[in-house]
Amino acid sequence: MTRKTETVILAYTKALKTSLYCSNMRRRDVLKYVGAGTAVVATGCLGETEGNEPGNGKNGNQTDGNDDSSDGADNNGDGTTVTGTSFSVSSRRGEDAEESASFWFEDGTLNVKGTIVGSDACKTAEIESAEYDGDRDAVVVGVGTVDAEDAGDACAEVLTSIQYEATVEFDGEQPLVVVTHDGEDVEAEQGEPDNGEEGENRTRMTGTEFEVIDSECGEEKNEAEYTASQAMSEGNGSEGIVEGTLSGPDGCTTAELGYASYDAEEDTLVADVRTARTDEDACADCITEVNYRLEANFENGVAENADISHDGVRLHGVGDGIQSAEFTVEGIDSASDEEGVSDAEFNEDEGNVTVTGTVIGNNGCAVARLAEAYVEDGRLVVDVETVSNGGEMCTQQLVAIRYTATLSFDDEIPNEVSVSHNGEGVMGAAYESNSVSAGSSSE
Q1: Which residues contact 99 (CB under 8 A, 6 or more apart)?
Q2: Residue 260 C-alpha from the chain's centroid
Q3: Percentage helix, strand, coil, to 5, in the chain?
Q4: How far apart are CA 126 and CA 144, in angstroms?
């Protein structure tokens, strides 16, 4: 065998190993070879370039990872060594999201944020590995999906978007970075360092105070006004004030705070005020107006808006054609694959429509409310949505929230009804016909 032939065979063998490696990588082109008689000079994955790109080897010397000449998974020739890791899941949401990852370096630490998608509602994420791969000349951070510790026997068959954060401490030169989800590369983007200011200075609700101002005989009334008071000096808290009125059937009606939370994405205070009963023996026989005041305390700003519900019915959410709307949460359970449906019953004699169903919340702090209801062209449209109750300790598992909504009308009952959960349709039915139930949508 000639020296030239030996050189070609060795080059071909090395490139073939690289091709086999690349064939297992997501969104990678497979390097193909025409024949052994052609000299091969490329040993990297097709389309790769030099530089600190996710999944790219700086020296193009990638193999299938089984090369015994590699000096280990935590140290390279320049002394890059992984010394510690930490990992946390920040949220889990029932949705089919795009998998993604980003990273940045700060003070000798690699920081990774990403979204990985689990196959069902019981899935969470964990860090599987974080080590230097000499074959790829990069630190490979492996994140995988696993069953949550509090997972039940039945898991809702919905794709679950899991957001996570990981930190990897290392010694040595700043390495290239590869992020994998369940063993497959994801296109991680390098971003700017997170100096922590956004987390430390973001607006937070720190507490609430609620009081009933007075009550008196009056008329059916459900209204609320919101005023935001921004602190003028550093260190002073800001306040969001809700002043409202709800009504009850007699003089023993009072009010209490059901829940209050801050929606940072919408910059909105979300709250529900419920009717309650006093312990008086004698009740005035009149519709009673209860005036209340809710004070929400904030730091680093204050909610710009407020979205208030009375007894689970969103104010200004009930529209044309509806005389009254009642909403009740019947119970909250762990989500299963039988949940996430809705049905309707037309009660012509009583002049109302009763909607029953189950909406899926993304964690143990989720509650449901009637977000919208109106009649248009003889069709009742209902939307039930999930919101947070403001709890600080929330189980990271989807929950099934069972509800009943009863609606009466100014005129005849509608001919049709359609129900959506968080804006996505789950059911449509016509009067004197069977309803059609479908899968759920998460918060």
Answers
A1: 114, 115, 116, 117, 181, 186
A2: 19
A3: 5, 50, 45
A4: 6
Is the C-alpha dihedral spanning 166, 161, 133, 49 positive or negative?
negative
What is the DSSP secondary structure assignment for residue 201, as one 8-state letter? H
Chain CA centroid to CA 27, Å = 26
Q: How far is CA 386 from CA 20, 33, 261, in A?
A: 47, 55, 12
> With the C-alpha atoms ordered 69, 70, 71, 73, is the resulting torsion angle positive or negative?
negative
- C-alpha separations of 333 from 191, 330, 354 in Å: 40, 10, 22
Tokens of 388: 């947070």
3-state secondary structure of 331: strand
Phi and psi at residue 151, in whole multiples of 5°? Answer: -65, 140
| Count of CB atoms situated within 10 Å of the CB of 197 | 8
Residue 12 in 3-state DSSP?
helix
Count CA atoms closer than 13 A to 327's CA, side-chain side: 28
Contacts of 357 (CB under 8 A, 6+ apart): 341, 342, 343, 384, 402, 403, 419, 421, 426, 427, 437
Structural contact between residues 176 and 139, judged by C-beta atoms closer than 8 angstroms: yes
Residue 97 DSSP class: P
- What is the mean pLDDT of the segment spanning 126-141? 92
Return all residues near 302 (Cβ < 8 A) that are at least 6 apart: 203, 228, 229, 230, 231, 238, 239, 240
**H/E segment holding residue 243:** strand 238-248
What pLDDT, on the 0 to 100 scale, is given for residue 99?
93
Locate the domains of the chain by residue range: 81-195, 201-311, 317-443
Per-residue confidence band for 281, with pLDDT thresholds at 50, 70 and 90: confident
Q: Which of 345, 236, 239, 252 is nearest to 290 (CA)?
A: 252
pLDDT tens, position by position, 234-258: 556 789 999 999 999 999 999 999 9
In 158-203 the beta strands, taken as DSSP E runs, fall at 160-171, 176-181, 184-186, 188-190
In the three-class reduction of DSSP (H, G, I as helix; E, B as strand; rest coil), residue 3 is classed as: helix
Spell out a b/e string for 282-303, using b for 16 or more CB atoms within 10 Å of the CB, else e.
Answer: eeeeebbbbbbebebebbebbb
